[in-house]
Automatic annotation (TrEMBL):
UniProt-annotated binding residues for Zn(2+): C295, H347, H471
Protein family per UniProt: Belongs to the class-II aminoacyl-tRNA synthetase family.
Known EC number: 6.1.1.3
InterPro entries: aa-tRNA-synt_IIb, aa-tRNA-synth_II, aa-tRNA-synth_II/BPL/LPL, Anticodon-bd, Anticodon-bd_dom_sf, DTD-like_sf, Thr-tRNA-ligase_IIa, Threonyl-tRNA_syn_edit_dom_arc
GO terms for cellular component: cytoplasm
Domain of life: Archaea
Protein name: Threonine--tRNA ligase
Database matches in PROSITE patterns: AA_TRNA_LIGASE_II
Cofactor(s) essential for the protein: Zn(2+)
Source organism: Nitrosopumilus oxyclinae
Any Pfam family the entry gives: HGTP_anticodon
Organism lineage string: Archaea, Nitrososphaerota, Nitrososphaeria, Nitrosopumilales, Nitrosopumilaceae
First-level EC class: ligase
Length: 622
């Protein structure tokens, strides 16, 4: 069966001519006009049966729930297929579909007639979709990845898609005007379609190779990357910064194993309930899996604590290098989605829901601040928030407060019933140039794992309770932050702006270029003086023209370039080429260092991760 589903402002159709002998009988055919409905053009194919019809109408009703529509027109449309079923079978199956949608305001256009029609389709992300439904559509084919029962269960979750505005207005996604929020529209379409495969490499892939940051590792499993010296420097600085911010917030850093016994009682309970795509290992009769989050280790550790309500909220933190997740191969691309990734993971154990909600607001502010300081502004991402209908009804004002903090409308997925271990999850999603959304910061309110892992605390009445657990990553995966920065740089370049890393993340912050060998001693002394001020500086001492050396520094996105000739060697001031402004300025040494310090204040520092002299560096073949 092939269906084309359209969410419409209206449709107007007129039966004009019987095309087949078995066409429906109509007395006095007239023009019909229907408004505010979903129109489903249907072609019943040879081999379709009642199971196909029921599967199709179930999918149609599910998508109608998401957009808040209760009016359906089934429109027989033979032109969708060249392999049509016999008319008698098609009529029977269409009738079964109509009967199965009796809770809706459902109708059909006459079967077997030529019809003229005019249609006005709405302009929102979920307004148009097409599907092919077959007998085998729910079966696992030999070349498909085996899917756990939990993953199959996830696909059956009933949810509604809405837009929640900062003023508290909740709007059906089909009725929201996205004109001022194009990225939110992309996010809505991406999330509801759940299509994660990438058909072409995004711009950051070429940049990560060109800039000597990272590349695919052909000798490893897909989705495991190699990081070159520049990439390792950037990655380590981000890791240190995020870790410092979490510890300032109150997270206590721990370290836990990367593999766990899948037959441990807590793990069995978890995997029986929740979907996971993990790497499995057999070792000495044990069935182990590689962690895909820091949750397991931190929860097993928390199980060993004797906690009082006075200790809560208690926060454990780990930067996992690495977490492992067996993403599907078509989803793996560059640094955006990996099978081995570095995830800052902070769990807060809270005594009750009011404390958890207060804490999640603090972590929301932390996450916004962390992203901003990493070079990702609020305009670079859009927010999605997911919750159960019950949780929303009980905590509207707190949810609305989070949306106000974001300052723009957000995408909402509201679950009719609780399926996951959490009752709320929010996330900031970066939208790249290919229209793909990638979650960065996130937090969850977990109401199950305290009990599952036997974590308890003594409350004010000396009674043991299980804590509510918050799962926060203030940045998301470190590799994904680098992906977002490179995607932003690619966009800047495309739009005529100079791409740039935040100065504190630039592998080289200052490059010195001596005009002649006779200035090498002065250059060496100057580089030592700059380096002593915790600034990454290198020297291009190669036997190349000054023009070529400046151009190559520009291509490496080096912000400050100092060309040293006789005038500069004898001057009290520095002559500075500023790549960002395009100016050449004269500054005293102290003023120059202070300008750099102003841009790197509060950020971690590490020295060069390559030889100081460019003549000593091997060329990277990419």
């Amino acid at each position: 069966m092939r269906i084309l589903q359209l969410h419409c402002d209206n449709i107007e159709y007129t039966p004009t001519k019987k095309e087949i002998q078995s066409a429906e009988d109509i007395e006095n055919p007239q023009t019909q006009r229907l408004e505010e409905l979903v129109v489903v053009f249907v072609a019943i194919e040879d081999g379709d049966d009642s199971s196909v019809a029921q599967n199709a109408i179930t999918q149609i009703k599910s998508s109608m729930e998401k957009i808040g529509s209760k009016k359906l027109l089934l429109y027989p449309y033979a032109h969708l297929s060249s392999n049509l079923a016999k008319p008698s079978i098609a009529i029977k199956l269409l009738k079964e579909m109509e009967d199965a949608a009796s809770e809706l305001e459902v109708s059909h256009s006459p079967f077997g007639w030529t019809k003229s029609y005019k249609i006005q389709v709405k302009g929102h992300p979920l307004a148009e979709s097409s599907k092919v439904v077959t007998k085998d559509s729910a079966s696992v084919k030999p070349d498909e990845e085996l899917t756990s029962d939990a993953l199959k269960g996830e696909s059956k979750i009933r949810s509604f898609w809405k837009i929640l505005s900062p003023d508290g207005t909740m709007t059906n996604i089909g009725d929201f005007n996205f004109a001022k929020y194009p990225k939110l529209e992309i996010l809505a379409k991406y999330e509801s379609a759940k299509i994660r495969k990438v058909d072409q490499p995004p711009p950051h892939v070429a940049l990560m190779k060109k800039m000597g940051i990272a590349d695919y590792e052909p000798a490893s499993d897909s989705g495991n990357m190699r990081f070159y010296p520049n990439g390792r420097l950037i990655k380590s600085l981000i890791e240190r910064y995020v870790t410092d911010r979490v510890k300032e917030y109150g997270g206590y850093e721990v370290e836990t194993p990367i593999m766990y016994d899948s037959e441990h009682p807590s793990m069995v309970s978890y995997f029986n309930r929740f979907p996971a795509r993990q790497y499995n290992i057999d070792s000495e009769g044990k069935k182990l899996f590689l962690r895909f989050a820091a949750c397991f280790g931190q929860f097993l550790m928390a199980n060993q604590y004797q906690l009082s309500y006075k200790n809560l909220p208690y926060k454990l933190y780990e930067l996992t290098r690495y977490s492992f997740r067996r993403e599907q191969s078509g989803e793996l691309v560059g640094l955006r989605r990996l099978r081995a990734f570095t995830m800052p993971d902070c769990h807060a154990f809270c005594k009750d829901m009011p404390q958890a909600i207060d804490e999640i607001k603090v972590r929301f502010d932390l996450s916004q601040s962390v992203l901003k300081e990493l070079g990702i502004d609020e305009t670079d991402y859009d927010m999605a928030i997911r919750f159960t209908e019950d949780f929303y009804n009980e905590n509207k004002s707190s949810i609305e407060e989070l949306v106000k903090k974001h300052g723009r409308p957000v995408l909402v997925e509201m679950w009719k019933e609780k399926f996951f271990y959490f009752v709320l999850k929010w996330e900031f999603n970066f939208i790249d140039g290919l229209g793909k959304a990638s979650a960065l910061s996130t937090d969850q309110i977990d109401v199950e794992n305290g009990n599952r892992y036997g974590i308890d605390f003594v409350d004010e009445n000396n009674v043991k309770q299980n804590p509510i657990i918050l799962h926060n990553s203030p940045s998301g995966a470190i590799e994904r932050i680098i992906y977002a920065l490179l995607e932003k740089a690619a966009k800047d370049s495309h739009e005529g702006r100079k791409p740039q890393f935040p100065l504190w993340l630039a592998p080289t912050q200052v490059r010195i270029i001596p005009l002649k060998e006779e200035f090498n001693t002065f250059t060496e002394s100057l580089s030592d003086k700059i380096s002593a001020s915790d600034v990454r500086v290198d020297i291009d001492d190669r036997n190349e023209s000054i023009g070529k050396r400046i151009r190559e520094a520009e291509k490496e996105w080096i912000r400050y370039i100092l060309v040293i000739g006789e005038k500069e060697a004898n001057s009290q001031n520095l002559s500075i080429r500023d790549r960002q402004t395009g100016d050449v300025r004269e500054l005293s040494f102290d003023d120059f260092i202070n300008e750099i310090k102003d841009q790197t204040k509060g950020k971690p520092f590490t020295g060069l991760n390559l030889p100081k002299y460019l003549s000593k560096r091997p060329n990277l073949m990419v």
